Amino acid sequence: MSIFIGKDTTLVVQGITGRDGSFHSKQMIEYGTRVVAGVTPGKGGQTFEGTVPIFNTVADAVASSGANTSVIYVPPMYAADAIIEAADAGIQFIVAITEGVPVLDMTRVYAFVKDKGARLLGPNCPGLISPGESKVGIIPGSICAPGPVGVVSRSGTLTYEIVYQLTRAGIGQTTCVGIGGDPINGTNFIDALAAFEADPATRAVCMMGEIGGTDEQEAAQFVKDHMTKPVVGFIAGQTAPPGRRMGHAGAIISGSAGTAAEKIQAFEDAGIGVARRPIDFVDLIKARLR
Amino acid sequence: MSIFIGKDTTLVVQGITGRDGSFHSKQMIEYGTRVVAGVTPGKGGQTFEGTVPIFNTVADAVASSGANTSVIYVPPMYAADAIIEAADAGIQFIVAITEGVPVLDMTRVYAFVKDKGARLLGPNCPGLISPGESKVGIIPGSICAPGPVGVVSRSGTLTYEIVYQLTRAGIGQTTCVGIGGDPINGTNFIDALAAFEADPATRAVCMMGEIGGTDEQEAAQFVKDHMTKPVVGFIAGQTAPPGRRMGHAGAIISGSAGTAAEKIQAFEDAGIGVARRPIDFVDLIKARLR
Amino acid sequence: MNIHEYQAKEILRGLGAPIPPGEVATTSAEAEAIASRIGKPVVVKAQVHVGGRGKAGGVKLAKTPAEARERADAILGMQIKGLTVEKVLVTEAADIASEAYVGIILDRASKKPVFMVSPAGGIDIEEVAATTPEKILKLPIDTRYGLQPYQAMRLGFFLYDDLAKARAASKIMQQLYTAFMQSGCSLAEINPLVVTPAGELIAVDGKMVIDDNELDRRPAVAAMRDESAEEPSEVLARNASLTFIKLDGNVGCVVNGAGLAMATMDLVKYYGGDPANFLDIGGSSNPEKVVSALQIITADPNVKAILFNIFGGITRTDDVANGIVTATKKNPLKVPIVIRLTGTNEEIAMKILTENGFSASSDMDEAVKKAVALATGGKAA
Amino acid sequence: MNIHEYQAKEILRGLGAPIPPGEVATTSAEAEAIASRIGKPVVVKAQVHVGGRGKAGGVKLAKTPAEARERADAILGMQIKGLTVEKVLVTEAADIASEAYVGIILDRASKKPVFMVSPAGGIDIEEVAATTPEKILKLPIDTRYGLQPYQAMRLGFFLYDDLAKARAASKIMQQLYTAFMQSGCSLAEINPLVVTPAGELIAVDGKMVIDDNELDRRPAVAAMRDESAEEPSEVLARNASLTFIKLDGNVGCVVNGAGLAMATMDLVKYYGGDPANFLDIGGSSNPEKVVSALQIITADPNVKAILFNIFGGITRTDDVANGIVTATKKNPLKVPIVIRLTGTNEEIAMKILTENGFSASSDMDEAVKKAVALATGGKAA
Description:
The complex is a heterotetramer, with two copies of chain A and two copies of chain C.
Chain A: E1 10-14, H1 19-31, E2 34-39, E3 47-48, E4 52-55, H2 58-65, E5 69-72, H3 76-88, E6 93-96, H4 103-115, E7 119-121, E8 127-130, E9 134-137, E10 146-153, H5 157-168, E11 173-178, H6 189-198, E12 204-210, H7 215-226, E13 231-236, H8 260-269, E14 273-274, H9 280-289
Parallel strand pairs in A: 1-2, 1-5, 2-4, 5-6, 6-7, 10-11, 10-12, 12-13, 13-14
Antiparallel strand pairs in A: 3-4, 8-9, 8-11
Helix pairs in contact in A: 3-4, 6-7, 7-8
Chain C: H1 5-14, E1 22-25, H2 28-38, E2 42-46, E3 59-62, H3 65-75, E4 79-80, E5 83-84, E6 88-92, E7 98-107, E8 112-118, H4 125-131, E9 137-140, H5 149-159, H6 163-183, E10 185-195, E11 201-203, E12 206-210, H7 219-222, H8 232-239, E13 243-246, E14 251-255, H9 258-270, E15 277-280, H10 287-298, E16 305-312, H11 317-330, E17 337-343, H12 346-355, E18 360-361, H13 364-376
Parallel strand pairs in C: 14-16, 16-17, 17-18
Antiparallel strand pairs in C: 1-6, 2-3, 2-6, 4-5, 7-8, 7-10, 8-9, 10-11, 10-12, 13-15
């Protein structure tokens, strides 16, 4: 079992003929993801890698392929349009990989997607993977293994690091979800935690947060109030100076708010196991899976 | 009993100190409507007629008075803002009397009100009256009487004409609703018909339509499919030339669509009694109330 | 409010849309001069607010400036559906490889502006809708978001398979949408949108209808009104804040409220008469409005009887009675008048009328019957 | 991206907001000339991208042009929180009857721009929020609708009871919102918004922070960047497409991915070291980026050891290894380097490094411990 994607996922790739889109489409197909359509305006009627039909619009792609999920690899200035197009075409789960999407664009996009009843993951995220079932995005399949742990994170490579260590320690994953590093995104920690709580195969959850905003604090409250499964958490950015954007658009301490210290405190208050170092996840999770 | 308004209606008047607003506020108070607040920016803290507190904003008025209904008498260019303000302040039923609201404004207003889960009546409508209970808008109370007939109409004075004839013939009304003559409005025939069908006190319904659009045709289908109570209908504009706006912004035959003939046909097909002349309502309703 | 083709095209040109060169002329000499400036074959097109001008002979090709002069001479002053042609557009003639239809209407059902596009352009879109509806794509636009790039591209691809043409078309969609929103339209269309043999897109005809309610806040758009292209009595009525539409019947109608006005006209017809007009004196009518209304109606030689039908709500019937007295004192009536009044201040109104030699009833049906009888020369039924 | 007060004020002035006259100067002579032109007492204000310049002595009143020159002389070249003042704004001094705060921030929780206004202006709004939260009105704005007139009035009435002042304030709200949206801000504020003894509203200070992601599509805004007001190493890094933030520690960090970069810095600290910087070489790094990264880091005299931490996903670790070899061949390192590489093409990378005399591990924890030990002069733990 898994959350958000699984064996039933049928995927349309928006921007399938672009540099990133084509590279990762091949990777996804290789991993076993059911890539059923691609979209590149003007290339409608062609095929990608000889097997995946390409369409001019997402509406055409959905009408023809019945795709239920979309992944977006288009340049930042076109990402908002691509997300809205996917939601408008009836896609229920949209994964936006693109980094650098103007945050004001996301205020409109978020409202649109919500009105359509769809779920957006990202933007500026690595996507997600349900080991052995489906991979949507850019998380390397080789570092994952099927198993009982749900992983949710605001970052990309830090997630790889921790998933890799879990896998090496023999701890597999139900789904690894990167929610992205932007201040306004479609899916937050609570959404993923609630899904893991509801997923019978998930027995424990790893949550990797960082400085900026209060998403982790609200997630901690959610864990305290609604979760029966154990959660282990980590916060990156203890050494970050205030007022500076630490790579991720959302990783910024505003005034005195959004520090690592307050987030770690919230984790502790909620009974979440706190990993001080990335490597600590292994022992903390092991203890909770016993 | 009644629909949309009744003894529980507590009203805030937007534009209470304006020419129309003050005149009709007095009329409504006189009729027995519970006018609990007024809004005129800059006059917050004053009172209207010594009894109704005035506020600068609808938010303040609602917070202080708990009003559940609003009626709007502001100039056309401010009407969209006033409607959105009311919905945003938590008002659940908003009656916009103002005539001349730009139709494009209503495209945004309609979406906003819908998102808030509120109901809008109008704009460009005479409001409504539940005889003996409450009156919101400008329908003269003197021509109405309590009774078993629901009235819904796209026009103002034509409604008065017919209500007056009903009352003179001893046929009272549960509620008389003017949905307004604009092409985009908040409440349509179906909304009112469904409410009358659900209202135990209503035993028959008079529906006055006119040329333009397909609201009457859809209403006829609704009557056929969902209504157990008898309905008598009338269509104004049999002599209207195509392509001309007959006073009401919505009363226009576009190309060959929206004619009186097709609407009357739809009524007949749905088993709705058709009043050829306004005066015919009396006999047609009488026969259906027996 | 209707604006002319040349005005719609100026708006679109200002937004960067590909509009062929052209100018408006009110004389044949001007038309010739414009044709000379263009230096290529032109089309001379009557600028009137009615459809079907092509069939009526109001659109003609001219290969030379001299021919343009001749064509303009023939078209200027021509009557099309009762309206006199006062202006012609002289515009470069286009080579046509294919024609498409692009339009936006403010749609009541979806409560949104709706794009309608069809590769079957150049003809009446209602005809396409009736015969080959699959050739039309309808796309509602949420005005909170505006026309999104993907929507414009989808519309473009519906018209053209080719990416370059679809892109060019999507740009025109954006321009038309901007024009629609900026001018406060209820309709805007380009028909035909032409592809030339060289593969370029050009907008050969343009039409925009403005929502009257927008004019107060858009003075530049309001200034486009061409009163010379309207029925003079309607211009007069509008300037007196009356809603008036001229018809061909013999019973002049003065009513308060649009719905009641239509119902009154219908009842005139029901009893065998013909309404001479639609006239709504509005809610808060004052005596001056009644005076203007009577002036306009009595100026119509077809009118054989005048019918007042007033249901006093906000309207005070005594105001109306005073208006009737004032107006008829100034200009005594040459046709009979039937007055029906009821509602607010009815008793005062009746008194005023009686004192001034008018009779009045409070029954609509009866009044209409009487007016029809008087207009048709028969007796009151 | 931060822009200066004077730039924010120019944007607001362009939208019609009431900004007192003022100009920017880079020399004291210019400051004197500006003060002469203004002809009234002025304030000389340091233009730096940090808060607290008032307390640091970077804002001074000057009654005469000569005094303005003196003040500018003192302020120009001053160090405020590590940044050198290169520009001063010379602006008319305002008479103050009351001060309010008006700001818009892009709020993560509501996913909307949120207005924050308070009649307690002129001081740090965080302080107001902490001590007297009832003096702050927060109002989220749905960008699909924009700031509605009733919302602007509500904000105005929260600041002023008086209709005229509330109206004037509501106009300024609209201007600030327009500035926020047009420039692609994540923050825009006027603090203080002053009421003068004569009852007029003026914006005495203005601040805008631009979302970096907006700069590509807003070249005019991007052109406002003042590289002279930034840390030179950060300018260098940005021009090499690296995300770099200078810190005061001794372990230089080169990492791929922002989250892993922060986690690496944290681990350095955990093991008793201090990170010298944040540096993310990005997803699809090429050898040139690695070369630039090493140049920037080795230029910092505080750096006593360099730590690479690369988890190859999209990033190919062999690219990184090649970058290290190239960079160190060109400019031999003077400090020790610790390399951790794992993931895509790890074996090739290890081979390249070994062949060129570098050792590398695949374990993050171990690598960080070693780098800290080298930087602090101790032994690897």
